[in-house]
Amino acid sequence: MIFRNPAGAPELACNECGCRWFDRMTNRCYECGAAVSEQDVAEFEAALRRFTEARDASRSATRT
Ligand SMILES: [Zn+2]
């Protein structure tokens, strides 16, 4: 599950309980212990990349 924070940045959240705390070593939710699939992680990283690129593009557009 991918959330958007108020700034519009994607945040990875647990599919089971919706919390955003993960053990990065094992890719498991701290709250309920559900595993985060590699697909979810890949989707999140792709969303984060798109967000970063869009943000950088709008920054360079307004800099002039
Ligand atoms: Zn959870």
Architecture overview:
With about 60 residues, this protein is an alpha+beta fold. The protein has one helix at about 40-64; strands spanning about 1-5, 10, 20-25, 30. The chain has one domain (about 1-60). The chain has one helix and four strands. The protein starts with a strand and ends with a helix. The structure holds zinc ion. Zinc ion (ZN) binds near residues 14, 17, 29, 32 and 34.
Report low-confidence residues grouped into runs of 5 or more: none
**Which hetero ligands occur in this complex?**
zinc ion
Number of domains: 1
- Percent in helix: 40-55%
**What's the number of helices?**
1
Tell me the series of helices and strands, N- to C-terminal. EEEEH
Radius of gyration: 14 Å
Considering the chains and any ligands shown, give keywords for the structure.
single chain; 64 residues; alpha+beta; two-stranded antiparallel ribbon; two-stranded antiparallel sheet; elongated; binds zinc ion
Give a nutshell description of this structure.
This protein is an alpha+beta fold and 64 residues long. Helix content is 41%, strand content 16%.
Secondary-structure map with pairings?
Blueprint (H helix, E strand, L loop, with lengths): L1 E3 L5 E3 L9 E2 L4 E2 L8 H26 L1
Antiparallel strand pairs: 1-2, 3-4
The site of zinc ion (ZN) has 8 residues, from loops.
